[in-house]
Design a protein that fits this description.
Elements: E1 3-7, E2 10-13, E3 18-25, E4 32-39, E5 46-51, E6 58-60, E7 68-73, E8 78-83, E9 92-100, E10 112-113, E11 117-122
Parallel strand pairs: 2-11
Antiparallel strand pairs: 1-3, 3-8, 4-5, 4-9, 5-6, 7-8, 9-10, 9-11
Length: 123
């Protein structure tokens, strides 16, 4: 059974930092693309970042480039998202997601996702 369990969300002031973590199990780590998406109340899902399965290259949404960093701990099968210089518009539930394959998918095409972790940025 595939499991993706997020942690690390919370309340932070604008300009602050948080690190989200996603513990993965139940699938072959190297065969999957893994990433983060978020959803704010009343808004559509937004892909935040993704790391490809083979070469580990990364993709970021324009809205988070230069502020967020995605990384993987392959030994622990853990995905991290370091978020710096947070803004109120980053407030959302953040989800870890996985998709079988090589290339980062569209946000609605992930095979699996976790339950999410709330990030709230106050102004």
């Amino acid at each position: 059974e595939v499991q993706l369990v997020e942690s690390g969300g919370g309340l932070v002031q604008a300009g602050g930092s948080l690190t989200l973590s996603c513990a993965a199990s139940g699938f072959i780590w190297d065969d999957y693309v893994i990433g983060w998406f978020r959803q704010a109340p009343g808004k559509e899902r937004e892909g935040v970042s993704c790391t490809k399965s083979r070469d580990g290259s990364t993709i970021y949404a324009d809205s988070v480039k230069g502020r967020f960093t995605i990384s993987k701990d392959n030994a622990k099968k853990t995905l991290l998202l370091q978020m710096n210089s947070l803004k109120p518009e980053d407030t959302a539930v953040y989800y870890c997601a996985a998709e079988y394959g090589i290339l980062c998918p569209d946000v609605d095409e992930y095979d699996y996702s976790g339950q999410g972790t709330q990030v709230t940025v106050s102004s």
